[in-house]
Design a protein that fits this description.
This protein is an alpha/beta fold and 408 residues long. It contains 13 helices and 14 strands. Helix 10 crosses helix 11. It is globular.
Amino acid sequence: MGVISSIGNDVPTFWKNLVDGVCGIDYIESFDTSELPVKIAGKVKDFQPEEYGMDKPFVRKQDLFTQYGMAAAYQAVKQSGLQTEGEGKNIDPFRLGVYVGSGIGGFEVQYRETAKMIDDPSGQWISPLFIPTMISNIAAGHIAIKHNAQGPCLDIVTACATSSHCIGEAFRAIKHGYADAIIAGGCENATIPLGIAGFANAKALSRAEDPKYASLPFNANRKGFVMGDGAGVIVLEEYEHAVQRGAVIYGEMVGYGNTCDAYHPTAPRPDGCTQAKCLNLALEEAGFDKEKDNLYINAHGTGTKLNDIAETTAYKVALGDFAYKAHISSIKSMTGHMFGAAGAAEAIATILALRNGVIPPTINLDAPDPECDLDYTPNKAVKSDITIGISDSLGFGGHNACVAFRPV
C-alpha cells in the first residue's frame, strides 16, 4: 500500500493520524485565494518527489497528479517486493498490470497552458509536453514504465469513484486470469484556482472559514465538501502467486460492486436503491453473513446534504435493521475529498481498520443530522474485531463503486 495525503505521505503516518483524528485541512498557501470564495483545502504537505524514485528532470515535466501517483505506487510496489527483472525477479512483466486513474488528470498544466493560449492565440508558446502531461492516463503509463509492468494498463475515469473502480476492475482481471498482480488506485491534484471556482460555483464546496471545522460528514452543520489532493495505491496479487513467493499479505479482497444511478449528473439518487444494489453486490460476493459478521463501512461521506442523506438511506436499504449495527466512518472529515484518489485512500483505511481492529473516527461530528442516524463513529476511534470491511464511492454522473475486504 502507498499513500500521499494531507495527513501523511506514507501509510504509517496516514494511519496514525486517522486514528488520532488529525485534521489535514488548512488554508491554501500554494496560490492566491484573496478573490476566491473558498480559501481552504486538504493540500499535500512536505512532498519531496525525489524520495520516491523521481529525478528532477522528470519532476519538472510532470503535473503533480502524476507525481503523487508515482509516489504512492513506489511505496506500494516496494512494500510488495514484486520485481519483474534481475536476480530477484518474481513475476512475469506481462502478468503485472497498472490500473491507476484520475478523475480530472493534469488540471494544473491544463489551466496554465490554456492561459498562454488566451494570451497568444497563435499557440506558439504552448508546451510540446502539454498533451502527454495533461491526459489522465499518463500517471498509469509512467507507473508502468517505472515498474516494467507490461500487462493490462487502464485509467478508469468515474469522478469520485475512479480509484474504487480501478481497484474493483483490477480484482476482476486477476480473478479471471488476466494478470497475476496489478498496481491499482488513483491520484489527483484538483486544488487549483479553476478547480476551486468550478466546484464552488456548482454549490458543492464548503465556504467555512475555519479549516479545522469545515469537512463535516453527517453533521447538521455541514455546508459542502472540502477539496483534497493526493494519491492512494494498493498492489493486488493472486493469492497462490503471493504465497508462493513468500509475500506479506495485509488483507484479502473478497468483493466488488458497480452500478449507476442513471438519475442526475451530480445529485445522487435519493431513494438509495442503486447505491444499495452496489453495496449488496460486493457483500454477496464477499459472503457477508448478518449472523456472523462484524461490518465496517468506510463511507463516501462527503459532507454534502444530498450525499449524506442518500448514502444513509442506501445503507438502510442494503442492510435493513443491520445498518444500525454496522460501524461506519468518513475519513474525508480529516483528508478532505481527494476526488479520483479518494476511493483508494479509503480502501487503504479499510484494510488497516481490519488489520488493526480499530475504526477510524468521523471527526467534528458534534451535531449529528437526525436524518443520518447510524453509528458514524463520532470524534474518537473505536476498537472492534471487525470481520469484513467495505468502502463505497459515489461519483458525479451517478457512478457507484464498492470494494470489500476481509482480514487475513
